[in-house]
Fold this protein.
Amino acid sequence: MASDLTSTTVTLTWDASTDNVGVVGYEVRRATNGGPPSTVATVAGTTYQVTDLAAETEYTFTVRARDAAGNVSAASSARTVTTPPGGGGGSGCTATYQLINTWSGGFQGEVTVENTGTVAIAGWQVAWTDPGGTAITSLWIGRWTFTGGENVVLHEAYNGQLAAGSSTTFGFTGTGPGTAPAGQTCSAR
């Protein structure tokens, strides 16, 4: 079985093998884009995470059991996966600001973070510079830092993972008119 597929990794899991001498390990074999297979790892257990894959590439994996006498089994049934696009093509996000409320000398704002990519993201970061006369005073549903004139908000543990097309929000209060932030950026992590 193949699971947790990203543009660079996949986790393989298989059933344990037995024989009359005793299985001591498994050879994980990989063929790239239909080429010949080669052994990429020898492991004792029945799971392995492959970590050196390329984005948008087809891989076929098989596993062979090795026993204590050095005998090697026939290859398991093949499992073929195609990695999704990486970095710029498969993952990304946008951050959209909305003014929620204003009062004398202050405002409440909200930012919607949306995964605009084609694959799930594990986290996000939004950064912006406050417009003149505006300053953030508190923020919720995100981890906020202010350094060198720039606000940076990182996801919390519970709202970082976003499936393709899904979104989350964080809110804040501040002083000033609540003008839209300048140069707002969103980065998928």
